[in-house]
């Protein structure tokens, strides 16, 4: 009886999660006429009707959206990893004045929610001449990232300093130690950061919406958001567009489940 | 020498976190529009307005819906984390399904739920099947219920995160403790009360902090789904409109400063109540 209640609740929760997505999936394959005559829970007549996807893909400029997202993602991730690992290396392996102050300034900054400061951040980005260039999103994704410095710093503590010292005895410079020893050993932490940061950037809406106003600079989120304007009443096309945005997330999740769970846990608890 | 390695991170931190916070404080005491060369000092006018003009303090009430929803979210997440930490068939499948919404793009989630809440849409159809047809409403159009619909969407989206965090914390409790408890004759409830709850106290308290700052900084769901119409304007939606549509940078900064102070205060209180040191079980 107890076991029955347990599985019942699990199945019920699964339905609540999946039903809203399933009906959108159904709608994406329906024709105009079919959509207006059939109920939302009726499966489409023809599962091979990809017309809505074609319309969404071309009219929604999804290719451009994916391209822009990919460029911003690649540069921001590389930057975050370099900036974060360098900072973690400096803090963990060097003694210098004001070290506690530096560490504290990262700590306090982690408490400031990014959305609250946008009013003022916008003025800074504007004064740099970056508004309406991909550079704005890139510097903000780099600059607002304190969690990754944290993850790198924690991981760094598990790399024994004796490795550095041995290499330096052999004449390696501090930078060579970073490049040849620390960076390769940081791989698991880099994977964690790449995953949580990658998902966050792919899903980010506020920053691209605020800073990348020109349609040419549309990323996935803003391309989908703008699509609703002209197609407001055509739900079958909006559904297809929504599915196009969701699909990569499904694939990534199925491939990298374990890494994603670990990454999310590491990112949120520190 | 270490400063060279620190420079990029520190430079970004100062430019995009500390300087904006400082500037925001300055702006909040002016009536600046973001364009003028000079800033007219305004004293505490902006702050007075945030707390006295209904349009501005009303958004705190809207946060209340999301805050209440986050209790629902934590309760659901805790329930599923506990049952899935024991032996269960299709465990990974259920875990994956429950977690998945958290990974989805916010705009996509907004559209999925706009579709669900449409008049004659999925929710109305399901209610009809269940014989509750007369209870259908304008889920997003009726100001009495719109915030509840949006807060519900937020629960759907974020429960997976709390769930995975709780599950991770429960699984890091060593198995021998359960075995010892079972030998001592402790039932499931006792195991939950005396082993699981203390073991995940820290993560639960962290979840409440995230709930408070999260419910104050809700933006995407109302902005995408209703645009703040029908009484669903949240703090950040209001601040966004004030700053970027009405160009009242001073006023918007005052709002942001108030929000920031609340978040910092709440975090400070949490740190005092639940010290950071790990709870020991032995």
UniProtKB/TrEMBL annotation, chain A:
InterPro entries: MetI-like, MetI-like_sf. GO terms for cellular component: plasma membrane. PROSITE patterns: ABC_TM1. Residues 66-256 form the ABC transmembrane type-1 domain. It is found in: Cell membrane. Pfam families: BPD_transp_1. It is a multi-pass membrane protein. Keywords: Cell membrane, Membrane, Transmembrane, Transmembrane helix, Transport. GO terms for biological process: transmembrane transport. The chain crosses the membrane at residues 7-29, 66-89, 101-125, 137-156, 177-202, 237-256. Belongs to the binding-protein-dependent transport system permease family. This is Carbohydrate ABC transporter membrane protein 2 (CUT1 family).
From TrEMBL, chain B:
It is found in: Cell membrane. Keywords: Cell membrane, Membrane, Transmembrane, Transmembrane helix, Transport. Belongs to the binding-protein-dependent transport system permease family. It is a multi-pass membrane protein. Residues 59-270 form the ABC transmembrane type-1 domain. The keyword Nucleotide-binding does not apply. It comes from Actinoplanes xinjiangensis. The chain crosses the membrane at residues 7-29, 65-86, 98-117, 148-170, 203-225, 245-269. GO terms for biological process: transmembrane transport. SUPFAM superfamilies: MetI-like. This is Carbohydrate ABC transporter membrane protein 1 (CUT1 family). The keyword Repressor does not apply. One of its GO terms (cellular component) is plasma membrane. CDD domains: TM_PBP2. Its main location: membrane.
């Amino acid at each position: 009886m107890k076991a029955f209640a347990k599985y019942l609740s699990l199945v019920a929760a699964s339905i609540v999660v999946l039903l809203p997505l399933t009906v959108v999936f159904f709608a994406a394959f329906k024709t105009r006429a079919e959509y207006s005559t059939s109920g939302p829970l009726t499966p489409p007549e023809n599962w091979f009707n990809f017309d809505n996807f074609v319309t969404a893909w071309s009219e929604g400029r999804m290719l451009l959206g994916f391209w822009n997202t990919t460029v911003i993602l690649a540069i921001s991730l590389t930057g975050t990893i370099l900036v974060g690992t360098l900072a973690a290396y400096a803090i963990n392996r060097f003694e210098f004045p004001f070290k506690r102050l530096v560490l504290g300034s990262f700590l306090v900054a982690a408490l400031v929610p990014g959305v609250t400061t946008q009013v003022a951040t916008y003025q800074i980005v504007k004064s740099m001449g970056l508004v309406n260039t991909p550079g704005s999103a890139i510097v903000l994704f780099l600059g607002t990232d304190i969690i990754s410095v944290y993850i790198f710093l924690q991981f760094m503590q598990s790399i024994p300093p004796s490795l550095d010292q041995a290499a330096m005895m052999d004449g390696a410079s501090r930078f060579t130690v970073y490049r040849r020893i620390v960076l390769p050993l940081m791989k698991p932490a880099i994977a964690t950061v790449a995953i949580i940061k990658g998902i966050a950037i792919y899903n980010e809406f506020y920053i691209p919406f605020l800073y990348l106003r020109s349609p040419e600079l549309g990323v996935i989120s803003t391309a989908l958001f703008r699509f609703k304007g002209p197609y407001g009443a055509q739900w079958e096309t909006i559904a297809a567009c929504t599915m196009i945005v969701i699909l990569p997330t499904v694939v990534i999740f199925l491939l990298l489940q374990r890494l994603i769970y670990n990454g999310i846990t590491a990112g949120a608890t520190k | 020498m270490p400063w060279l390695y620190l420079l990029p991170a520190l430079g970004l931190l100062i430019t995009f976190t500390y300087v904006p916070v400082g500037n925001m404080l300055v702006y909040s005491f002016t009536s600046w529009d973001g364009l003028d060369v000079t800033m007219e000092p305004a004293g505490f006018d902006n702050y007075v307005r945030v707390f006295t003009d209904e349009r501005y303090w009303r958004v705190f009430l809207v946060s209340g819906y999301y805050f209440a929803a986050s209790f629902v979210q934590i309760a659901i997440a805790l329930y599923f984390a506990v049952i899935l930490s024991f032996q269960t068939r299709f465990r990974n499948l259920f875990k994956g399904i429950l977690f998945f919404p958290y990974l989805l793009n916010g705009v996509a989630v907004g559209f999925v739920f706009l579709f669900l809440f449409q008049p004659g849409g999925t929710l109305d159809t399901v209610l009809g099947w269940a014989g509750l047809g007369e209870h259908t409403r304008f889920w997003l159009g009726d100001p009495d219920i719109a915030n509840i619909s949006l807060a519900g969407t937020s629960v759907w989206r974020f429960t997976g995160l709390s769930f995975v965090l709780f599950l991770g914390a429960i699984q890091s409790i060593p198995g021998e403790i359960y075995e010892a408890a079972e030998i001592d004759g402790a039932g499931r409830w006792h195991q939950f009360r005396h082993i699981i709850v203390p073991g995940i106290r820290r993560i639960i308290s962290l979840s409440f902090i995230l709930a408070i700052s999260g419910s104050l900084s809700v933006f995407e769901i109302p902005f995408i789904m209703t645009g703040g119409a029908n009484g669903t304007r949240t703090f950040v939606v209001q601040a966004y409109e004030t700053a970027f549509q009405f160009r009242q940078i001073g006023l918007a900064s005052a709002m942001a400063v108030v929000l920031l102070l609340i978040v910092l205060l709440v975090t400070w209180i949490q740190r005092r109540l639940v010290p950071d040191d790990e709870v020991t079980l032995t």
